[in-house]
Design goal:
By secondary structure, the protein is an alpha+beta fold. It has 4 domains: 5-222, Rossmann fold (3-Layer(aba) Sandwich), CATH 3.40.50.410; 233-422, Ku70, Chain: A, Domain 2; 437-525, Ku70, Chain: A, domain 4, CATH 1.10.1600.10; 540-621, Serine Threonine Protein Phosphatase 5, Tetratricopeptide repeat, CATH 1.25.40.240. 36% of the residues lie in helices and 19% in strands. It has a 7-stranded mixed barrel with strand order 6-7-13-16-15-14-12. It has a 5-stranded mixed sheet with strand order 3-2-1-4-5, with helices on both faces. Helix 1 (27-44) runs antiparallel to helix 2 (85-94), helix 3 (104-118) runs parallel beside helix 4 (144-154) and helix 14 (540-567) runs antiparallel to helix 15. The N and C termini lie far apart (74 Å). One of its GO terms (molecular function) is hydrolase activity. Belongs to the ku80 family. InterPro entries: DNA_bd_Ku70/Ku80, Ku80, Ku_C, Ku_C_sf, Ku_N, Ku_PK_bind, SPOC-like_C_dom_sf, vWFA_dom_sf. Residues 291-430 form the Ku domain. Residues 1-20 form the signal peptide.
Length: 627
């Protein structure tokens, strides 16, 4: 279930945040980078979380708690709302360093007040504060107990760490730049600030006090990947039927399906960048000299078979469709699991099928079916139709039993037309290609060294060195990187691919080191030699034979060109021009220039008779002229 979260980004913009040693980036710029990364992830993940921004250390004051001498130099920069590119632009260009300082505990109180007031009447599963500071501002512990009590009251939920690297957060999540001045180390003020934060985190049940606190560098690393788009699980209720008398209420969810980039591209005017300035109009014309316009209602679709076009109307298409009475998940029979080969899995999704919720009878019957399949090592062969509009599929449903739940996993199986059967000659029939014992042993060693499952010394603990399910799609990461760059720098070229994107699909370093020895052995046992291409010499007898066959071959080529022109279409025109180009080249080689000129003269007459002016124009552009 998608969980809505209310987030306040609390940023220290005091004058100490803009100070830095020569050659180093100041804390404020690092914090803004982290905020930018965080908001980018939310925007591209189409998150429904709402984000507010509070600044402290500002020259002015704007918050609901401000009085004459309290909560000064704290500004609510943005109220709770969905993140967008306006917020990203604010972080990049609008937020500037201040010349004052403010107590970060006062800023936390302002954040809590904002959360309290702006979440009234709304449902949020979590509310939390992200604090970005170098802790160089003076801090007073006078109200620490009140803050702790309020945190327990309005921020009762810990924030989970995301699977893909996560948004590491607790009720209060501080990004502390531990060493803004590396040569001098931490100042006394920063040490005092860390002690206050440690007390605060201890009271929030954070063991050690600082486990949920990160340096700016650590935060940037953890936020380097864009989040995946959150999807709400959509239940598919149905009846699992076995024969005509047994029916079990089930519900299915997509477990695996290909994620595609949303096609939200819009054509806009290149100068104004306005969508409204571009008007699209589609017209349908006959393929004649004057391009006679016809109405869309007077057109139907057709399929080309050779030179003929077979009309096929919408009514024909509807009648052709397979008629399904309703959605179904019917068991056609059972098969041994060993008979369902893994290479036969197909389709673009995997379904997890459960018994219907709150139906005890269905749960008992479904559990019995799952356990029976598991014990007998068989799978159910199922007829699956999503709804009455869809063509039915044949698939396998195999048992999947875990400690927390049990279900059936449905995967589509191929029909006869989906299978590709190829027969290749065996390498064993050629003695030249039979490997030696040493070569076989070397390949075995290479395969063993490239094993991605690492076994510990105890022989029981296994570690997966390469987990595709934990690797984000590099295409999405690169796309989001480019979109974000173009949003802020529309006239600049795209940036290079970030290093961490390139490294995602690299071989694990452990495996790379381990396979160096076997690879060297492979190189020694399988030497590669460059083989030059042999030049075939044309004998005089063969040349004379080719000359004698030239008239018949050229006539076949002319006939083929005529067939292409009969079909009338740009793709056939291009095929015809390719034939003419070959005809011209070979005529030069064989000194048959007059033969080509005669053909071209005859072709010109045909073009004029058959109104193929567009084809002749392409010919001229391709410089297909007489000799």
């Amino acid at each position: 279930m998608i969980r809505n979260v209310a987030i306040v980004l609390c940023l220290d913009v005091g004058f100490t945040m803009s100070s830095s040693a020569p050659g180093e980036e100041c804390s404020l710029e690092q914090a803004k980078k982290i905020m930018t990364k965080f908001v980018q992830r939310q925007v591209f993940a189409e998150s429904k979380d709402e984000i507010a921004v509070v600044l402290f250390g500002t020259d002015g004051t704007r918050n609901d708690l401000a009085s004459r001498d309290q909560y000064q130099n704290i500004t609510v920069h943005r109220s709770l709302m969905l993140p967008d590119f306006d917020l990203l632009e604010d972080i990049q260009d609008v937020i500037k360093p201040g010349s004052e300082q403010a107590d970060f505990l006062d800023a936390i109180i302002v954040c809590m007040d904002l959360l309290q007031k702006q979440t009234i009447g709304k449902k949020y599963e979590k509310r939390h504060i992200e604090l970005f500071t170098d802790l160089s501002s003076p801090v007073s512990e006078d109200q620490l107990e009140i803050i702790i009590w309020l945190l327990h009251t309005i921020l009762p939920f810990p924030v989970d760490v995301d699977d893909g690297g996560g948004d590491p957060s607790a009720g209060v999540h501080s990004h502390i730049h531990r060493n803004p001045f590396p040569r001098k180390g931490l100042t006394e003020q920063q040490k005092e600030g860390i002690d206050v934060v440690r007390k605060l985190m201890h009271t929030l049940d954070e063991e050690g006090g600082l486990e949920e606190i990160y340096t700016f560098r650590e935060s940037l690393e953890r936020l380097s990947m864009f989040k995946k788009i959150e999807r709400r699980p959509m239940a598919w209720p149905c009846q699992l039927t076995i024969g005509s008398n047994l029916s079990i209420r089930i519900v299915a969810y997509k477990s695996v399906t290909e994620e595609k980039v949303k096609k939200v591209w819009t054509t806009v005017d290149a100068k104004t960048l306005r969508k409204d300035d571009v008007q699209k109009e589609t017209v349908y014309c006959l393929n004649d000299d004057v391009e006679t316009e016809v109405q869309k209602d007077d057109t139907i679709q057709g399929f080309r078979y050779g030179s003929d076009i077979v009309p096929f109307s919408k009514e024909d298409e509807e009648q052709m469709k397979y008629k399904t009475e309703a959605k179904c998940f019917s068991v056609l029979g059972f098969s041994r699991s060993s008979q369902i080969q893994r290479h036969c899995y197909m389709g673009n999704q995997v379904l997890k099928v459960f018994a219907a919720k709150d139906d005890e009878n269905a749960a008992v019957a479904f559990s019995a079916l799952v356990h029976a399949l598991d014990e007998l090592k068989v799978v159910a062969v199922v007829r699956y139709a999503y709804d009455r509009r869809c063509n039915p599929q044949i698939g396998s449903a195999f048992p999947y039993i875990k400690d927390a739940y049990e279900c059936l996993i449905y995967v589509q199986l191929p029909y006869m037309e989906d299978l590709r059967q190829y027969i290749f000659s065996s390498l064993k029939n050629n003695k030249k290609y039979i490997p030696t014992a040493d070569q076989l042993s070397a390949v075995d060693s290479l395969i063993d060294s490239m094993n991605l499952v690492y076994e510990a010394d105890d022989g029981e603990t296994f570690e997966d060195l390469f987990k595709p399910s934990k690797i984000p799609n590099p295409h999405f990461q690169r796309l989001y990187q480019c979109l974000q760059h173009k949003a802020f720098h529309p006239n600049e070229p795209l940036p290079p691919i970030e290093e961490h994107i390139l490294e995602m699909l690299e071989m694990p370093s452990v495996v790379k080191e381990r396979c160096q020895g076997p690879l060297e052995k492979i190189k020694a046992l399988f030497p590669l030699k460059e083989v030059g291409k042999k030049k075939e010499k044309m004998t005089c007898a063969f040349f004379d034979l080719f000359i004698s066959l030239c008239p018949s071959v050229s006539q076949q080529l002319i006939n083929r060109i005529d067939q292409f022109l009969e079909n009338k279409g740009s793709q056939y025109y291009m095929k015809g021009i390719n034939c003419i180009r070959v005809f011209r080249e070979e005529a030069v080689k064989l000194s048959k220039v007059q033969c080509f000129n005669d053909f071209l003269q005859a072709l010109k007459s045909k073009v004029e008779d058959k109104a193929l002016a567009d084809f002749w124009e392409i010919m001229i552009q391709g410089r297909m002229a007489f000799f």
